[in-house]
Fold this sequence. Notes:
This protein has helices at residues 2-38, 44-50, 62-67, 78-81, 102-113, and strands at residues 40-42, 55-58, 69-70, 74-75, 94-97, 119-122, 133-134. The chain is α/β, with parallel strands linked by helices. It has two domains: 1-38; 39-134, Rhodanese-like domain (Oxidized Rhodanese, domain 1, 3-Layer(aba) Sandwich), CATH 3.40.250.10. The strands form two sheets. It has a five-stranded parallel beta sheet. Strands 3-7 form a two-stranded antiparallel ribbon. β5 (94-97), α5 (102-113) and β6 form a beta-alpha-beta unit. The longest helix has 37 residues, at 2-38. It is elongated. 25% of the residues are buried.
Amino acid sequence: xxxxxxxxxxxxxxxxxxxxxxxxxxxxxxxxxxxxxxxxxxxxxxxxxxxxxxxxxxxxxxxxxxxxxxxxxxxxxxxxxxxxxxxxxxxxxxxxxxxxxxxxxxxxxxxxxxxxxxxxxxxxxxxxxxxxxxxxxx
Length: 138
């Protein structure tokens, strides 16, 4: 009797763990699919080469931007992207980055749905950036 209740408890625990894993993997897969659909993920070398002819947007918060950002980038937190859409040119490529790639995926989807065709995301985000950076003076 006790063995049966312990066994049932373990089955429920296992089912919960499996459900959590399926949801987590499904979310990661959905993000990867969205990135491929709405943008092109590029490595650091391609990002550096093309950034001189592109609009480079840092989608992190203003505080994170001030602590350090890619040289030549401008701060445009994802929360304000909708308000500042008029500042972007549709004829120039848009290079996006954040700390990883989560915010960029959302931003790329939003931009793509509004007609921006040349949207690129930095692979690995700022966390893996090894190029030139700049920090705010104050």
